[in-house]
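task queued by scheduler; priority normal; single chain, no ligands, no partner chains; default sampling; output format set to structure tokens
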Amino acid sequence: MSTAYRRRPRSPFRVIDGNVLIGGVGEQTVGVGGAALFVWLVLDAPRSVDQITSEICQTWPEIESLDEAMIDEAVEILVERGLIQPVESDQGESA
């Protein structure tokens, strides 16, 4: 069983100048950039870290500097901030 992740429900967001602004816990706005930006954008459906990595590579093939360790770290940060949530599943859904 692998862990899939999804965006926190009812989290409004907007992408501006290479960052995503997300309505965070307690209605504060959280700015996210770097690898976390791409993780957030591909979580339109629940995905495992492997699926997140694959989707980022397929969607943005020109981004060669993102590796799985960076994506793992971005997922951890987004979970700690309460912006995404783990969901146990047999496999994350693929868009």
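post-processing summary
- The longest helix spans residues 68-80.
- DSSP finds three helices and six strands in the chain.
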